[in-house]
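Help! Submission page says 'invalid entity' but I think these are all valid:
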Amino acid sequence: MFNSALVQGYGAPLFAAQYFVLNYSIIRLFNSLFLMQIKTMAQFAAEDQAPEILFWVGCAGSFDDRAQKVTRAFAEILTAVGISFAVLGDEEACTGDPARRAGNEFLFQMTALQNIQTLNMYDVKKMVTACPHCFNTIKNEYPALGGNYDIVHHTQLLQQLIDDGRVKMTDGGTFKGQRITYHDSCYLGRANGIYAAPRAVLESLDGQLVEMKRSKTNGLCCGAGGAQMWKEDEPGEKRINVERIEEALATGAEVIAVNCPFCLTMMTDGVSGKEKQDSVMVYDLSELIVKQMQR
Amino acid sequence: MRTRRAPVTFGGMVQSIIFSLVAFVALGSAFLRFRRVYSNIQLGKAEPVEGPVAERWKNMLLVAFGQKKMFNRMVPAVLHFVLYAAFVFTQIELIEIFIDGVFGVHRFFATRLGGFYNFVIGTIEVLSLLAFVATVIFLVRRNLLFIPRFHKAEMTRWPKLDANLILIFEVVLLLCIFTMNGTDEVLQSIAPAYYPETNLAVSAWLGPAIFGGLGEGPLRVLERIGWWGHIAMVFVFLNYLPISKHLHILLAFPNTWFARLRPKGELGNMPEIMYEVKSMMGIEDPAAPPPNPNAELPAFGANDVFDMSRVELLGAFSCTECGRCTAVCPANITGKALSPRKIVMDVRDRAEEVGEKLRSGNPEFAKDQQQPLSATNFDDGRSLWDFITREEIHACTTCNACVEACPVLINPLEMIMQLRRHEILTEAAGPQDWLPLFNSIENQQRAWSVGTSRTAWAE
C-alpha cells in the first residue's frame, strides 16, 4: 500500500520514490534476516538433518556488495515460503567458470573437484543458485568430473513457486505504470535455453514487460562473460555494457531486470555511465519479487 | 512419335569422344581437389562421436537440408532457398546431359518420358528463372547495398571476389540453360527428326520470343553453345568448389551431422588434466590411465591445426563467410579486433597452408630432416598465431552468440577456447589482469581476493 502510493503519486520524479522503495525494502530485508536463520550444510549435518535444497551462493553473491543484496532477497523468499535450505558457507569454493573460460583448465579442475568432494560428502542432491555461471558449470560441466546434482537457477525456482501459489503478489501496484525490460544473460539464455521462466516471473509483477531489440537467442552479452569481468577491455570503440545499456534505455524502461550478478554490475555501471542512475534502476529478479510479494 | 529415336550422327560421335575426355579430366581433377580438402580436415585430431545418432540426423535434416537457421532472416532466407532448390533440382538434368554427351544422342529422355519429361525440365526451368532473379538480387545486395557484414576487415580481395565469382558462374549457367532450351524449342519445328518435341514451362514461350527469327544454322550453333556452356560451368564449378567458400553446399551436411550435441554452455572436458588433478588430490578414478613417468610434457589446447579437432576443421571448410557470427559478436560490434568469422577463415587458411606444404614433400618443412615429411614430422616455423592475434582471442566473452548464429552449426567459440587453453596452459602466458583472479581462486578458493566470510551477507 505504502509502495503504491509512493510510486503512483510521484510520476515524473520517479527516482525519488524508487530510492525510497529500495531503502525501505532493504530495511525490511534486514528485519527479516533477524528472523531468518541461515544455516550451513555443516550445521544441518551436525544435527543429523538434511535441508530440502542447497543454496549455492557463488563468489559474487558472497562478496560483492550489490550482489549480496540479491542473495539476501532470494534467501528471504526461500524463508518466507518455508523452504528449508542450507548454504555451504566457507566450504563453498569458486565453481571454476572464470578459470576454465580464461583457459586455465588446471585451476578449474582443482576448484571444481574440491567442490564436488564437498557436495558429495554432504550427499547433496538438489541445488539452486542465483548465478547463471555457477548454474551452467555445475549443471553442464561437473557431471564429467563426477558431480551429478539436480540444480536449478533461481528464476526457475521462482517461477515454480509462483505457479504453485507459494509466492503470491500483492495487488498494491508496486510497479504500476512502470516498464520493466529483461536482459537475458548468455549463460541462462543461449548456454542453457532458459528464456521463458524469467519472463514468466516478471509477468507476475504489475509492471509492463518490454523487450529490447536483441533478446532471447539474439540477446546481447553484457560484456562480463569469459572472465572479461576480471580484465580490462581489449582496445575498441565502445564498452559492451554501454552498447547494451543504450538498447535497454531505448525501451523507455525504468527497471532493468537481470538474472546474473555480473550482468547486474555491468548494467549498473552502464546506467551510471549514462548518468541515468536516478531514473533507471537495475535489479535482480528476486529483488523485484521481494518488493511485491505477500508475506 | 514415341517410336522415333534420335539418330546417332558422325558429329554426335565426335562430340561424344570430346565430351567423354573432358568429363574424365574434369571429374578426375575435381576428385583430386576434393581429396585434398579431405586430407586437410584429417590433419586435425579425431574426436569420438558422442550422443544419440538420431539427434545428428535430425540436425542434418532440419539445419542443412531444411535450412532452419537461415529463416531467422527472411529476405536472404527466401532468396537462398530458391537458389538452393534450383541447384538441387537441376542436378537431375545432369543425368540426361551425361547420357547425351557420352552416347552422342540428343535429349535421351524426351521421347521416352513424354509428359513427365516436360514436367521435370519445366520445373527446373521455373526454379532456374527464380534463381536468376535471386542471383541478381544477391549481386546487388553484395555490391551496391551497404550490408555491414559483407564489408568487415577480413573480407579482403579473395573473399570478396570468391563471393561474386560464384554468383557470376550462376548467371552464366542459367543463361546457358535458357539458350539451350530456347533454341531447342525453335529447332523442333525446323528439324523435328533430331529435336524431339518438348513443351517446357519457360522456354516454350521465351525460346521463340528470343530466337524465333534465326535460321537453322545459327540456332544449331547457339544450341550447342548453350549445351556445352552449361556442362562446362558444371565442371568449372566442381573444380572451383574445393578452393572456394562455396564448399558449404556439400560440407553443410556432414558439418551439421558432426556438430557436437552437448549444451552450448558446456566446454569440452580435458580428461588428461582431470586425471592429473585427481591423482594430485588423492581422488581415485578407475577410468584414469596408469601413470607414465616417462611421458613427455604434453601440450594443451591448440596453436595449430594439428591440435584442433577434426570437427573444428570440418567447420572451417564448411564456412561460407556469411558473417552472421561476426554481426552478432559483442566484441566485434563494439569495435574490438575479434571477428569469429575471421577466426574460422584463419583456421581454414592455415589448414590449407599446412596441407599444401605437406603435399609438396619439401624436407625444409620437416621437424627432423632425416625423417620423411609428415603431419607428425612437420614444422614450418608457423602456427595459427601467425594468422590470429592474442588481442582477438582475449576479446571473447564466451557469450555463444556466434555459435547460435551459424546457419551450418560451426562453433567459433570452441576454436577460440582451444587457442586460449594453449596460451594459458602451454605457454603460461595470457592477460596479466587474470593473474589476481587465478591467485585468488587458487589460494582463497574465491574469484575475488577479499577477507570476509562467505556468509557475511547474512550477518
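Support: the input was valid. A stray whitespace character was the problem, and the output above is from the cleaned input. Chain A has two domains: 29-159, 173-292.
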